[in-house]
Amino acid sequence: MNKILRPSPSRGQAVSGMPSHAVPACQTGGVADVELRQLRYLIAVADEGGISHAAASLGMTQPALTRAIATLERSVGVALLDRLPRGSVLTPAGRILTDRARAINQDVAAAIRQSRETSAQTPPLRVSARACDYEMLGDLIAAGHGEQVEPVMAHWRTQLASLRSGAADVALVSGEFDETGLDTALVTTQERVAVVPENHRFAGRDVVDRADLLGCHVLGWAGSTSQERDYWLDGAPLAGAEMEDLLQLFVHVRNNNGIAFVPLPMVEEVPSIRGVRLIRVNNLAPARVRLAWMSDRTSTRIARFVSACEGRNEFIGRS
Questions:
Q1: Is 73 helix (H, G, I), strand (E, B) or coil?
Q2: What is the pLDDT of residue 311?
Q3: What pTM was computed for the model?
Q4: 125-130 and 170-174: which strand pairing?
């Protein structure tokens, strides 16, 4: 019987005698039958620099991963790896598929996360606001953004602590604050006015320049961070004891213990206090009203809510 002589595999050919760039495709309707796990295997090979290291990172045996990649190559119809004596490297086609596989993997993960977030069992987004900003929060929620939101009344002293502890998902905050670990987005700005005693030399004026008040001591708030104190004082010297609430501030102003700079909406809702006057101040930095959330807890729901509220002055009664 005559022997059938078969040529030895040449360089660039698989053992079967077929060139490595001509892997037969197993397709249905012209579209490769590829699974997500196969794409993740390919990503692991690319990230780990070869089959053996990728298998270890995936918790697989090397032969099992080799078979899985070979199955992927048959599905796609092209070689994805060049098998070299010292390992494997991606072919040009393999690099293209790996890049697209990363994007596909991220899109699938985002789709799953969004699906879970829109489930009926997902709790509402908890957004806190202080009493003076609570109406604004209601306006923002009423404007509509597709998210279930539970407004939470917050005390100014504990609002950010509640945000950092997870008791609230987002906080609507007026003024400056310690932003450590937080991301923020500007919603609007509010005019700040000077609160002065009725016997102050400028009490009879409607508007003054910030320079006119440079010699005045300004009242601050107890427990303020350095950022908050700088905002409330606006570069002025601190006037004695710091305040615990707005009524206490008005009493100290009336008793000539100092003046105060406050956002106009904060005092508009307060009944008239005898013995004090409100004066507009040119060149006084406004109060920034921002949404804040923990940088490491950003979610699609928070992003959608923030995007809908960001810079939306038309939804806010005061700006």
A1: helix
A2: 65
A3: 0.58
A4: parallel
Distance CA 132, CA 265 (A): 7
The Cα 271–Cα 316 span in angstroms is 22
Of 32, 33, 7, 11, give the one whose Cα is nearest residue 21. Answer: 11
Q: Which residue has the tokens 């979610």?
A: 299
The values of phi and psi at residue 296, to 5°, are: -90, 5
Tell me how crowded residue 240 is: count the other CB atoms within 10 A of its CB.
11
List the structure tokens of 275.
Answer: 């013995």
The tokens describing 190, both together, are 């509010």
Question: How would you classify the pairing of strands 31-32 and 27-28?
Answer: antiparallel
pLDDT in tens, 114-162: 776 666 567 889 999 988 888 899 988 887 666 789 999 988 778 999 9
Distance CA 230, CA 237 (A): 10
Q: Any idea what the Cα angle at residue 283 is, between residues 279 and 289, rounded to 5°?
A: 85
Total Cβ atoms within 10 A of residue 49? 13
Under 8 Å between Cβ of 136 and 171: no
Q: How far is CA 313 from the centre of its chain?
A: 21
Q: Which helix (H) or strand (E) holds 286?
A: none
Q: Strands of the chain (E only): list them.
A: 27-28, 31-32, 81-84, 87-90, 125-130, 149-154, 170-174, 182-190, 192-197, 207-209, 260-263, 276-282, 287-294
Angle at 35 between CA 34 and CA 36, to 5 degrees: 125
- 174: CB partners within 8 A, 6+ apart: 130, 132, 133, 190, 263, 266, 287, 288, 289
Which tokens in the block code for residue 20? 């490595």
Name the CA dihedral angle for 294, 184, 162, 225, rounded to a multiple of 10 degrees.
Answer: 110
State the Cα–Cα distance between residues 278 and 243, nearest whole angstrom. Answer: 18
Q: What is the distance in angstroms between the CA of the first residue and the CA of the last residue of the chain?
A: 98
